[in-house]
Amino acid sequence: MLSLFPELLFLAPLSALVIRAAVAAMFALAAYSHVRGATMFIYVMATLEIIATLSLAFGYYAQAGALLAALIAGSWAILGRPARPYPLTTTLLLIVMSLSLIVTGPGAFAFDLPL
Fold first, then answer.
1. What is the pLDDT of residue 53?
2. 3-state secondary structure of 88
3. 100-114 burial: b if 16+ Cβ within 10 Å, else e
4. Which residues of the chain have pLDDT under 50?
């Protein structure tokens, strides 16, 4: 494999961990902002966001949590402003990061067994 910095390739297993932590942090902040909402739909969204956050943060059923995160972020993109805590570009980036976790797996320091 041709690489500009081949001595850094030993850090490749940690890349999924960094993506997983970033998505979990974004969903934790979204859940916090939704808890202050008033409607029952927003509370349901916050509960699903907390489930996705815990799954991704601890790496337990991380691919299922990433699928849930992608579905939630997709609903943010479709529903618009009351449900979406971030701009559309950030929401689309969260969808891409979640889909990459579904394909590549949870990475290092996860409770999931590698397939």
1. 96
2. helix
3. bbeeebbbeebebee
4. none
Mention every residue, 6+ apart, whose C-beta is less than 8 A from residue 115: 105
Contact in structure between 16 and 104 (CB atoms under 8 Å): yes
**Model confidence pLDDT, tens digit, residues 27-56:** 999 999 888 767 888 888 899 999 999 999
Domain around 49: 26-104
What's the CA gap between 46 and 43, in Å, rounded? 5
Name the DSSP letter for residue 112: S
CB atoms within 10 A of CB 55: 24
Structural domain count of the chain: 1
In a domain, 68, yes or no: yes
Instruction: Fill in the amino acid letter for 97.
Output: M
**Given this model, what pLDDT does residue 12 score?**
82
